Amino acid sequence: MAGTLAATVATPRAVTSDRSDDWPRELTDALGRRVRIARRPNRIVPIFSSNTEIVAALGAAHRIVAIDGLTRYPPEILDRPRIGNRIGFSPDIIARLGADLVILTPARHAAARLLRPMSLAGIPVLVLNHPTLARILANIGLVGRAIDAEPEAGALTRAIEGELSALARLFSSRPAKRVYFETGAAGRAGFRSVRPGTYTDDILRHAGGLNVFSDNTNLSQVSGEAVFRADPDHILVAGGMADVTALLARPHWNGIPAVAEGRVDAIPRGQVLIPGPRVVEGVRSVARALHPDLLSARGE
């Protein structure tokens, strides 16, 4: 399973030589832009939790000079200045901080508005998109190249791929558990679940699970009736025990065998809804919930 991850990702990519000390470097980002980085970045501004966690995991937390207002991890960077939130991000603050690299994801229109002002200020912007687990691993390598941390990036991706391979061997002789994975509740509008072809769906698959809504390619919202009809083997909730308690208290949901028989577990949101290095922890957490006997035999 894990052995196919790197092979399926062609972009983004580095387009310069293989030497680790050559500057400037030119990279191709998720928008197809050729991004020129003149020198080793020492004042990095990663926007969105995923990008911040990648930079920190590569041993460069001390080079992060600012973060966005919604980032909560890792703890050692939470004292940095905040440069914006859902409404927008401040190019003036980024420039005043002397940033020499901005890393962002085009998840919100506000982030895209930074491209032109940063270009005018001469600050390179590397845009990353993390739709799948394979792309997350590719992006770890790309960030490693961008910030001069190739050995750390290589070690991290090998560790993640090694863990995925080990888990795949554990589950190779066991049928996948059919899972309803709830990522949020939208009140009367229904409930948010995992769409196929996403990194959270990849996490579930690598942990020996099968998304009961694997054919629901266009929408992430499902109705309670759809969950009843799907009759999952197991229910996972992205969150904590309070979220599990709320699900168990829903009227009539005890008519679902997985609920009636206690096959409902919480998975920390940061492990399954932030596309960064912690996704491997998400795979382990999901695997423990779905196949506790196999993980116990492994000593976990």
Count of beta strands: 12
Structural class assignment: alpha/beta
> How many strands, which pairing sense, and closed or not: the largest β-sheet?
6 strands, mixed
Helix content: 25-40%
Which residues sit in consecutive blocks of at least 5 with pLDDT less than 50? 1-19
Treating each run of at least 4 consecutive H or I residues as one helix, how many helices? 13
Which tags fit this structure?
300 residues, alpha/beta, Rossmann fold, 6-stranded mixed sheet, 3-stranded antiparallel sheet, 38% helix
What do these coordinates show?
This protein has helices spanning 49-60, 91-96, 109-112, 115-121, 133-147, 150-171, 199-206, 224-230, 241-248, 257-260, 269-272, 279-290, 292-297, and strands at residues 13-14, 25-28, 34-37, 44-46, 101-104, 125-127, 177-185, 191-193, 209-211, 221-222, 234-238, 264-267. With 300 residues, the chain is an alpha/beta fold. The protein folds into two domains: 2-157, Nitrogenase molybdenum iron protein domain (Rossmann fold, 3-Layer(aba) Sandwich); 174-297, Nitrogenase molybdenum iron protein domain (Rossmann fold). Strands 7, 8, 9, 10, 11 and 12 form a six-stranded mixed β-sheet that branches. A three-stranded antiparallel β-sheet has the order 1-2-3, with helices on one face. Strand 2 (25-28) and strand 3 form a beta hairpin. The chain is globular. The model is unreliable at 1-19 (pLDDT under 50).
